[in-house]
Structure prediction request, 238 residues.
Amino acid sequence: MKLRLGSTSADLAQRFGIGTTTVSNVFTTWIKILSKELGFLVYNPSKDVVKETLPPKFKKPGYSNVRHIIDCTEIFIETPSNPTVRAATWSDYKHHNTAKVLVSITPNGAFNFVSKAWGGRTSDVNVTRESSFYDMCEPYDEVMADRGFTIAEDLILRHCKLHIPPGRRGKEQFSKAEVNKTKKIANLRIYVEQAISRLKTFRLIKNELPISLLNNIDAIVLVCAALCNLYSPLGKTK
Prediction:
């Protein structure tokens, strides 16, 4: 109930006739246990499995070898009282204090990587570099991302390839080929947006996360992602 509905400890205490401290203790204990027991559901399948479950959209020339689609998502958090933490978690994009998490999905929409949470002030590129995402990448993997992920050189060093929409770089307008590439990638990247939307059906991380739960945010996000992987694939494989 706390994960899905975002119920407060006071509400749950009243519903179940127990103290708020007991509610907090039960939740903290079980979210840690669940993260260990369900964490195996968030895993990186082999290239052969990815190929077998590839949605038709990806079977077109140029994107049939995509193995990871990445993006960052931000989770609103209660404003910290510590000025340093408040500054580190302030997101200019969301105009709120947030925690930022990098997620990666397979082309069919299953989470295959979830990073630790970072302060909302951290850039997407820095989160990608400092997380263990690169450790998961194997030679000749292809990664798809938004244009803000300027990590092509990082991936080249690992013999991997990056697909991102073309940037303007001072141009007044895109060429016809660049417009078509932008549309194609946007049409394929929609799966990671849908996967994140699934993740946010758990209202505990859709709404403002209480500061008292900040220490457990990594376990919370991992459990939510693991449960999302029990759903039907986002992309049709036939």
About this structure: The mean pLDDT is 93. The longest strand covers residues 66-76.
